């Protein structure tokens, strides 16, 4: 980075909560959001760290979010934890429901969390890594806004619909991935536009549904999914599991709800958790070795496991006690509450 | 098809069981396999219908499969149905465990089936469609043989690792997909080789790990996943969930177990099931309408839902009472047991 400044790890949460409270989030929400921003910033995940304070601010300005609502857990005997975010940001609801998801997974072997009625702006990997940190495998999905055309289609129906997964590795960073099922992130298209560069082929269609490499035409039209028909099918599955399955909005409905106002989309989230001890009939340790052999064979041939750069950044930043962010980011954040 | 013959629907199972019993499968296994072949053939899914009798024969000839072993269900109080196929084909084990998976899903809201120690040759969609037929959503995954290189890699580590999903639609055929996470099916590469045609770019690497469009070099080297790094990450997830999670083999281990002999790979299978009624807090019907609006928006723009061609074939073949298969297939099947 050309012009960067250091922020001590201890200051990340403080900077975040101060801004969040100033723009209208209550203490509990500010704290849950600040934890997420800390986790992302620690891993040099710039797009989902402190930078997201702008999105939190815009969401508040759009006027639909509740900055104070306390999430409500539904009582249940089954393996599903349902938590109602009541029109607030998702993170406090997930924070409240996570211990219940872990307890249900240890009881039933497999369990799910359904988060309803939440605004959502965050990366999914920190939440599935909370599961792998306690020895469970985790998977998470959310819809977004209907910016993405299905394979063979001409207009936005699907969200960017990310899928995240984390697998616990004994004594090591977990195997984690978190990817959008759109071929490109919407922010990437903005970057191409600003740089005046054409998009690669196969990433977007224009407002008439014709393939385009023009970033503005893509923003006016629709993005495409990664992996053609397969990626499109996967994205539809995510719409269904994180939407109608859990009695919450599809990306189309989330887009309508927003009424053209900015900020984070409003919808649901699903998190699945798996207990290797119960799935393996008590042989999780022996199967750790089996999984490690798989990872070793991938790394030995020069391929990278997903998230490795992030784990390297985490280690480095933890050791030196600070993160580096663009100087302009800090200036912009100061202006935000000036 | 140039030269086809008709087979009455009533005869598909009979032809299958007769051949299966002749080549060494006991009655219960022959019947479970015949049900699978019938289901696929009814939908004109030629690659996984009667054609697979050759694979069943080759698997028996390879000498490692047990044609008679009865699957054993593990007792459990949790939401996991574990069934041991005991070295036989997977299908009888899945048949035995499926009612328990359905019962556990209705009890717990989410449940899983782990099938262990099975040979596996079949499409996954018939099994997830058994779930959607009773109003549940289903997902299934299996590894295979390590023919597929991870993104950025140079040699086979991953299987073709299919993912199947089915969503129940009230009064309609379900939303179902079933795709390999390899860019191409291995059989497709064989077809390119026979036709003397080069492969598309990005589908395979040669034995030195260099990109190749030569079908034979691809068969000697490794296939690639669909969707680059994202497809590769998804494939690794499938290895983990259908392998080490459930105390069963990875695709690398399955390949080693086969010792170069032909036939179906030997490994495990995982099936997940979701009860929309419980996930939605009793609002499944209202959410059906929400899902239907999503499907309608996809179809209205000229895109196809996956499996539509298959459902059309099913309807046509059920109405006319027969399927059409290549004449050569029937000749070859007669020779198989001559």
Automatic annotation (TrEMBL), chains A, B:
InterPro entries: Mal/L-sulf/L-lact_DH-like_ah, Mal/L-sulf/L-lact_DH-like_NADP, Mal/L-sulfo/L-lacto_DH-like_sf, Malate/L-lactate_DH-like. Keywords: Oxidoreductase. The keyword Cell cycle does not apply. One of its GO terms (molecular function) is oxidoreductase activity. Pfam families: Ldh_2 (PF02615). The keyword Oxidoreductase applies. Belongs to the LDH2/MDH2 oxidoreductase family. This is Ldh family oxidoreductase. It comes from Halocynthiibacter halioticoli.
